[in-house]
Amino acid sequence: MKKALLGTTALIAAGFVVGDAYAAQGVKLSLGGRYMGAAGVQAIDDFSATPDPSDQLREYVFKQDVRVYFLGETTLDNGLTVGARVSLRGQTDSKDQIHDVYAYFSGGFGEIRFGDTAEALGQLCYLVPSAAAIFGADSPNFNFSNAGVIGYGATNGTCYGVDGQSTKIVYFSPTFGGFHFAASFTPDNTKDSRNTLRSAATRFMNDTGQNSENLSIAGTFTHDFNGVGLVVGGGATWSFNREQAEADHPGHRQEYNGYAQVSFSGFTVGGAISDRVNVSNSIHNTDALVYGVGVTYNWDAWTVGLGATHGSYDNQAHPLSVATAPVVGTSDDHDVVSLTAAYALGPGIEIDGVVEYDKYRGASDGDTYEGLGFGLGTLINF
Description:
By secondary structure, the chain is mainly beta. Helices cover about 0% and strands about 50% of the residues.
């Protein structure tokens, strides 16, 4: 499944095209968004740890994830498209109600975006195939595993990125011969920046744990060979300055990913891999390697799929361990197998289902987790 790609552009391009550019009708505002909701239950929730954490966990859960966006766009007489997008979380969020916000300029030169949005690696990213838009073995929007109670996280993912929605500049190339690429630069892990009455206008360089001077590149090749579709690509992000006390410096953060998919006669077969280096802000050598494969089949309004991922997480500290410090040289393992299905009720509306098996093995303390979950949800695009 392809991550949402809204390749558009930003302020730097304006200097090349202002001149006589003019839009007689001005900027037009449009509104859109999407709703995701799901209910899940854990049929098996088995921990080896003592005391058993399952005694403190519900066996079912309801989840929602909602986005609403405002898009203002116009095309100037010289062909340049200019716009701005603001995406809001549709639910109350104590940390940040705005998900992303950016301006863009696009034309024959490609696209440039400036603002709070994902880095190049995250913009051009395909996951392990899944029939469902909201469930899957790779980076799902919703999952029902409690593996994170004892270890690294509740699921595996191949498309996380380093700096999230931090303020950055992103360039998207035109497509030529089926290939296009993107590149982005992020000064630091801050967003929604504005002027301040006090403190430094250009920010300090000692924000502990922050990844700064981040460069990301990614490329994708797509082609149809007489009914057989091919997608292949990947990306990389490097943080050249991790702001940390030198004695505790875990090393600069890096991330690499790759993917490939082949589609034919209703089938899609593919895989993805991610290698994250120095994930932790405080623990040395906490690297993460995740890879997986999947297949889907579509007929009429139905799609079914089966996917599996394996995650290997080095030198993890476990929340339930008496000694939370990791044992150097150990590696936790997390396996996810996901059977998914989707039924298209209409354009932009689908019902999704999942049966998911998880197994997590903690190397440093021997704790294990095994779970079997079921989920049913919906995606509504508007």
